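Dear colleague,

Following up on yesterday's call, I've attached the two folding results inline so they're easy to grep. Please treat them as preliminary; we haven't cross-checked anything against experimental data yet. The first protein's sequence and structure tokens come first.
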Amino acid sequence: MMEKWKMLNGPPERYEVLRRRIYSNTKEIWYYVSSSLGSLANEIEDLKQKISHMKTMVDEHYRSLLRDVAKLADVDGYSQWRWKEFDSLSRLVEKRLLHAQNPPDCSKAKKLLCNFVNKHSCGYGCRVHHFIKCLFVAYATERTMIIDNPKNWKFTSGGWEKLFLPLSDTCTSKDGDTVSLWPGDESIQVINYNVPTPEYAPKRLHPPYIPVVLPEDLAGRIKVLHGDPAVWWIGQFLKYIFRPQPSTTILFNEFAKRAHFQKPIVGLHIRRTDKLISEASLHKLEEYMYHVEEYYKLKELNGEYDTKRIYLATDEPTLFDEARQKYPEYDVIGDPEISKTGSVRKRELDDSIININIDIYFLAYHCDYLVCTFSSNVCRLAYAIMNSLQPDASAKFTSLDDTFYFSGQVHRLNVALITHKADNPDEMDLEVGDEIEVAGNHWDGYSKGTNLRTKKTLLYPTFKVTTKIEVLPFASYPNITLNTETWKEENL
């Protein structure tokens, strides 16, 4: 009887939040100890061997503790509820999107015309973020999103619909009785929305619905279900726009056969070329593979002894030979020919766009874990889509640089749960309830941000804060519901 109760009612929010907090804090203390031992070894040559032994033991303790905490979700009796709630929430969001995007009478429908006006360099991943930014605004205001200037988006010579299903099957006309620029008002039938909105533009021109903000009517449920609610929310919209055409599915299947794609597998996304000019630092292959090794050591701790595999997605073809030479015990899956189309010179060609989508698809849909740099739009896209496909994949990644963010987000806030007294001039004082605008996690036990109370931008211990879930009223689609009573009757 208790098992059936758990399937129907789910876990208390405080239990899920605490379980995930223990997991994340386990990682944070490992980041701190690992980084501190590394610094100590560099400072004191005579201690290097002893510190190396300590590091090995710390890593073993870490993996053991991480495994035990992760198993809580397997033995607490809520697993079936998590899948049921995930399915229910996902289908509800998809049903609302289908409703908004397919009005019965296009001539009367309220519309949002999405116009891409970026005159500067903006790659494919960047444009996709702007693309779904429009869809968020359309959903929040219950309008049908229509691409206003397809050529500017450069998705392929055949447009978005060459690779993916159209956003709407019933409404593509831009016409309307009344037209206005964003923000307009509810009485206007057609609103023109230009992206990206310049940073210097008046506040009213910046829509409030951009992630990481969540809809008020769903935020509570998403928070219980997922470790990073904003990622789950973004993933649902990406899953909608990335519905492949039948011809695209054939391309994916052909690649899987050609590359001999198998599981288990870790997705390794290594962005080089132009990304290193101004946006990111160089990370050697060994830095990525350290975390891949940790993943497989954790599997072995669980008694799983599988062939070690990586799916290598990169714009640097020479990494394939390097990976096979340095890590002969790994099965390296991928295609160097795809990497060649990732160069700056070829990146806007049709083949390159198709190949980028192959990488996104296999990283998101078929990899068990991701190791990458979140400074890359492509990896963040893949990670968000991965989180749209299962109840909670928020811990199934390692980023070597940034934390997850949405391109164009206003900010991401942490809230202090524990007071902190600064030990040095680089740290900030914290009072319980302080809000910090996050600049990034340094993966050494500390994050950097701006304390909104003191206005100081400094470091703070990551374990002493939690993410603030920001919520706003969106359109609530009261007429779009799911029939959950049948499920309850079958399981009572």
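Below is the second protein, in the same order (sequence, then structure):
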Amino acid sequence: MSCNSNSQGDVIIFDNRQNVEELYTYMNVDELLSTAECHNCKSWKCRTVGILKSVNGHFYLNDIYEESNLQAPKLLVSMLYQDDIPNSILPMTVQLFGIMQWIEKPVLFVEIIHVINPRMAVNIQNSLSSIINYHTNNKPH
């Protein structure tokens, strides 16, 4: 993003033109899984919120609203690019930014991880979902 000021220096114009591939697209865990299954040869940058847990040395992400979120693993998460991997046997609520790919099954390669409290996770997921719903429902025809 670039910014410029006018000759008096008091007006700043922001240029928001960015390549779409540079942005992290928000999706919940179920949307990530279904999109990955439909487009299994495509990868994209994404952002999601969920409950991260370790099962037999592998990380999995479940949706925060699922009743069975602590039982069956959902989305495989790779921490390959992380220096400081969270070390916990307890599930934790997180916000993840990464690249979603299909490698024999859907895998989220995490670039940024934020460990957050459950209340913040719910607030983030509700806010982002309502923003997406608003913009989806108010598209110009």
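For the second protein, one point worth flagging: Strands lie at 2-5, 12-15, 25-26, 44-55, 58-62, 75-78, 92-102, 106-115.

Best wishes,
A.L.
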